[in-house]
Amino acid sequence: MTEFMINEDDDTDEAITWTLAESLLEKARAMMQEAETALDSFVTGKELNRQLCSSRGIGESDAEIRWNNTAKARKALADTTFNTTQATMYYGAATANYSRALYLRSHRREPV
Length: 112
Known about the structure:
The chain has three helices and two strands. The chain is mainly alpha-helical. The relative contact order is 0.21.
């Protein structure tokens, strides 16, 4: 029969890694919320511009072209892209840390 001893350093490493993973996950969620806000800004601006152009007798395709060339539209799209990319990075880092924590949990018992 083999006896097992729990290594306290592994428990601490696991807890730190798990906490880091949760923190990264929260950052990823916050970045996704920022991306959604930027996308909503783009869509709202596009609709308002379409309505404004429609009242002036400008067609929908021309209104879309005009909207896409504005600084607000470009900023909204750039913010969406940036925040989505950041969220993807944070999700990946969180996944790696969750995997590490699970690895540490499964290997924390050492034979004596």
